[in-house]
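Subject: Interface between my chains keeps coming out wrong

I've been trying for a while to get a sensible model of this assembly. When I model each chain on its own everything looks fine, but I need the whole thing in one frame so I can look at the contacts. Pasting all components below, labels as-is. Any help appreciated, I'm running out of ideas.
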Amino acid sequence: MTDERRRSPFSAFIGTEMEELREGYARVSLTLEPRHTNPNGVMHGGVITTMMDSALGAALGALRGEAARRDPHATVEMNASFLSGARPGDRIVVEGRVIRMGKTIAFGEAEARRADRSADPRPNGDTLIAKGRLTFAIRKRGE
Amino acid sequence: MAMVEREAVERPASPFVELIGGRMEEWREGYVRMSLTLEPHHTNPNGVMHGGVVTTLMDEALGGVIASVRGLETMFAAPHATVEMNASFLAGARPGDRIEVEARVLRLGRRVAFGEAEARRDDGELIAKGRMTFVILEGGAA
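Reply #2:
Try treating it as a single job with all components included. I did that and got this:
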């Protein structure tokens, strides 16, 4: 199966881009549009949880290789802290890293950052806007 | 009736939830129920529901239920924002399944609000549980 076919339809639907994917690491990005907001006009929390889940699912997939197609992994737990907001026009980058992979369970963490806004008078680097911890179960075929 | 007064102010829906097809089924003080019928574009590479679909609905339902208790005018003056989410994914779902998310407020304080949400498949199977914490912002959204 090609990498293109392994793309997540839901991530493609909301408009995220896979920027880098290697064993145990993935980076995805999205430039926020009005359709990604909540009633207050700022980023909906679901955008970030979706990107974190996608990044880590892919990072783990890249690490597991063929085994991931045979015995898929599924998210069983997600804990996310939302540290700062974002609004349309902001570029969001989420990095996912696998921190441990066992035979039946895998753990990972994700960080979401907002790029400096072009209007910022003094750019001081990207702002950490969310952190997440995810746990995946590795399903054995036939279970 | 409180409900009638609340209906007078337009009930907020998130553009992001409209984009993914989430529907508000019930909205009253202290209780919100939403639904979504899964389509192929809601899936992950394994062809089953993407976790982001259910976390989005839980966040929306809980934000909505806190708004129902705080009142919409109060909410727009001092919005609440999710600061913590813990979700357990107990079972999967696939295209064609209809999922429902129910949300309840556990405690509403002056600065912080707590709530919980449950997601079920239309055959009754509990597929996810979530606990969220919201902060009440002063002086508008971030």
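Reply #3:
Confirming on my end. The first strand of chain A starts at residue 17 and ends at 22.
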